[in-house]
Design goal:
This protein has helices at 13-24, 43-49, 65-77, 95-100, 121-127, 163-186, and strands at residues 2-8, 29-36, 54-56, 83-86, 105-109, 132-139, 149-156, 190-193, 196-199, 206-209, 215-216. The chain is of the alpha/beta class. It folds into two domains: 1-101, 3-Layer(aba) Sandwich (Rossmann fold); 108-219, Formyl transferase, N-terminal domain (Rossmann fold), CATH 3.40.50.170. The model has no long low-confidence stretch (mean pLDDT 96). The structure holds ligand NHR and glycinamide ribonucleotide (GAR). Glycinamide ribonucleotide is lined by residues 8, 10-14, 43, 87-88, 90, 108-110, 171, 174.
């Protein structure tokens, strides 16, 4: 059994999608702990309801970034995970932390990377007049939102979209692609070479939701 630690900061809807898929699809893995960087993260209750130990490493209680990263590293290390999965985790991690889990730490980011790394992705996509938006699962590297891309999902941008309506459509896409990508990782199906990720079995590494929000399945 592969051991997964999930790091969250907020609502935890991606955590919920991961927990559901892990149980329903009988992954060779389980979520052994959820760690939040803030005590009010609603996702902590999702973990507890699923019987997963949840703990807080409060970033506001840390003296500085280095102290927070060290405390978080210790909490993660204590779980001896095989994979560290960021699910709406809002703290930039230092290079030492990231290198420790090289090739074993994943993130879902709410844009079609390399467009719009960082924060406020939906606002920026709307301001840029994008007609397609989406989400990206990538391996985490020291450079923010620049790690090797595992899987991307695309959704249409509608003329009357607001940040909120676009975020909701992209989030639904995240809930489809993130469990799939994490499953590939725990199954050992991913290969990384020259900064590019391939699926050993040739599974399509994209998903598109059409204007009616039906999934367009890869062939
Ligand atoms: N750390 C590294 N080194 N590399 C990545 O690719 C990372 C990472 C930590 C988190 C998630 C990322 C996202 O999906 C992620 C990827 C936080 C910020 C940020 O600016 C940006 C991107 C992501 C996560 N955080 C502010 C900070 O000072 C705090 C913002 C807040 O609290 O609201 O850390 O988008
Ligand atoms: C998701 O849209 C995720 O991609 C994004 O925050 C949301 C978390 O939702 N992540 C980031 O913006 C990281 N900086 P959730 O808590 O319901 O999973």
């Amino acid at each position: 059994m592969q051991r997964i630690v999930v790091l969250i900061s907020g609502r935890g809807s991606n955590l919920r999608a991961l927990l559901r898929a892990c149980a329903a699809e009988r992954w060779p893995a389980r979520v052994v702990a959820v760690v939040a960087d803030r005590p009010e993260a609603a996702g902590l209750d999702i973990a507890r309801d699923a019987g997963v130990p949840a703990q807080v490493v409060d970033h506001r209680a840390a003296a500085d970034r280095a102290a927070f990263d060290a405390a978080l590293a210790a909490a993660v290390e204590a779980q001896a995970p095989d994979f560290v999965v960021l699910a709406g985790f809002m703290r930039i991690l230092d290079a030492a932390f990231v290198r420790r889990w090289d090739g074993r730490m994943l993130n879902v980011h709410p844009s079609l990377l390399p467009a719009f790394p960082g924060l406020h992705t939906h606002r920026r996509a709307l301001e840029a007049g994008c007609k397609i938006a989406g989400a990206t699962v990538h391996f985490v590297t020291p450079t923010l939102d620049h790690g090797p891309i595992v899987l991307q999902g695309a959704v249409p941008v509608r003329a009357d979209d607001t940040e909120e309506t676009l975020a909701a459509r992209v989030l639904a896409c995240e809930h489809l692609i993130y469990p799939r990508a994490v499953r590939w990782a725990v199954e050992g199906a991913l290969r990384v070479r020259g900064g590019r990720v391939t699926h050993a079995g040739g599974a399509p590494q994209w998903l598109m939701l059409d204007a009616c929000d039906a999934a367009v399945a890869p062939r």
